[in-house]
Design brief:
196 residues; two-stranded antiparallel ribbon; 6 helices; 7 strands
Amino acid sequence: MKIVAINGSYRSNGTIDQAISEISQKADREQHSFKLFNLRDQNIAFCSNCRECTQGEITRPNQCRTQDDMIAIVKEASQADLLIIASPMNFLSITAVMKKFMERLIPNFYWPWGKLIPLQRKKKANKKAILITSSSMPGFISKLLPGGPLRSLKLIAKTFNAKTAQTITIGNAAQRSPQLSSGIKNKINRATEHML
């Protein structure tokens, strides 16, 4: 199995990094391929909203004219069997670097000039996704936010034709040092138990 993790956290070795590391170690023990993209270390430009990539045929996007690390990330994520998409909650949403990444996924939509709304190029979900988020508020509250980080992470997964299989919310993150508790590690193990 090929697993690709996309990490929108700014903090090295914070709770999100540690959660992804738990999954990576389990994947390694079970001899799965695991590739991690820390967006904080990637060269990702802002989308220019030129919409050139949304033109062309409905089944095949035009190439984005911005040449940066997005090309490699999208290629790897598109070929994955399982995606890990993670971001802490900042101001009730995903981080800015994850939002920048999300906006650059527009080539996966067909939006010719004159059409009111874009259409996703591929509609059948052919892979699964595990979504991870952390918050200073209790985890169950962050799940209830209608426009919270999980909504954006689900949209990113859907853009890659991935169906959300599990969500892991790490709550009360500001009330302790960034060390995963045994309870959170158990939650991660349960979420990945039948997937790896």
